[in-house]
Amino acid sequence: MKSKTYEHILVDHHDSLTTITIHRPSKLNALNIATIKELHDAFKQAESDTDTKAIIVTGSGEKAFVAGADIAEFADFSVSQGEQLAAQGQALLFDFVAHLSTPVIAAVNGFALGGGLELAMAAHFRIASDNAKMGLPEVSLGVIPGYGGTQRLPQLVGKGRAMEMIMTAGMIDANQALQFGLVNYVTPQEDLLPLAEKLAGKIMRNSSVAIAAAIEAINAGYEEGENGFDTEITVFGKCFGTADFHEGTQAFLEKRKPDFPGK
Ligand code: COA
User: CATH homologous superfamily of domain 9-204?
Assistant: First the structure.
């Protein structure tokens, strides 16, 4: 994939893996609207690139993944601008990432607050460095999480814990996040990206079309008006019509490693 140049993010692509790094170090990688638009563009490009089999999203530097939405940008917004901010952000980035068919791993390398934690939660799963701190501090600013946080945090950690985290506006450390199931692993900072790459490598050995189908079925269980079990039946059936299914089953029967065509 030919990587584009952006102002607020860095995109690296090698060995079928695209790494997107939010890069606004002077603002602890806070998400202004321009950064959200760039992230949308980069995720969209990675999704459409047939040579991208997994995506890692992380923050630049050692201090922050993302310290939240850019408070300076929305401080004087009106009611309708506030609603528009949440709607646009969810459509362009948070819901967009959650529904990508390419697996997205968030490597949380420091503060993941507000929109930062919401971005990490929109990813398909998360790992964290041991200095990471996570929270949804919006009520301390007189607002609530608007990029999906009131929905995804209870899904990931349970309603009571989410209520406490959101109402206290407090931060939890990486080990607490691990205990809550908010992140899958905690590592020293220098091991974070290597671990993300190792996990991506394990994923990329499998059928990308089956992984896309699995993401669709898992997400369906969390969608209003959808029945996850019904979606599972439909997408399970569809897998039988793919070249990957043919290759995967033949390889097993022939006692060899599969070479998935990815279709
Ligand atoms: N929006 C805009 N700017 C932010 C930001 C945010 N969410 N988070 C940090 N920054 C900026 C700071 O304003 C500061 O900029 P400046 O140097 O131009 O003044 C710079 O990033 C460094 O942050 P600073 O607060 O000096 O670092 P710190 O180590 O003292 O504190 C935090 C780190 C994360 C605890 C603190 O920055 C913070 O509380 N940020 C806001 C978190 C938040 O409420 N997020 C939810 C937003 S909805």
Answer: 2-enoyl-CoA Hydratase; Chain A, domain 1 (3.90.226.10)
CA dihedral sign, ordered 185, 188, 194, 196: positive
Over residues 183-211, the pLDDT tens digits come to 999 999 999 999 999 999 999 999 999 99
pLDDT, averaged in runs of 10, over the chain (263 residues)? 86 97 97 98 97 98 97 96 97 98 98 98 98 98 98 98 98 98 98 98 98 98 94 98 98 97 95
Q: What is the pTM of this model?
A: 0.97
Domain ranges for the chain, please list them: 9-204, 208-253
Distance from C-alpha of 28 to C-alpha of 132, rounded to nearest angstrom: 13
* Three-state DSSP state, 12: strand
As given in the structure block, the two tokens for residue 247 are: 């290759």
Give the residue whose CA is nearest to atom 43 of ligand 1: 68
The pLDDT value recorded for residue 143 is: 98
In 117-143, which positions are buried (b, 16+ CB within 10 angstroms) versus exposed (e)? bbbbbbbbbbbbbebbbbbbbbeeeeb
67 lines ligand 1 (CB under 6 A): yes
Pocket test for ligand 1, best of 22, 27, 94, 168 (most atoms within 8 A of CB): 27
Place of tokens 């997408």: 235
User: d(Cα 84, Cα 62) in Å, to the nearest integer?
Assistant: 32
134 — phi, psi (to 5°)?
-125, 145
Residue 244 Cβ inside 6 Å of ligand 1? The answer reads: no
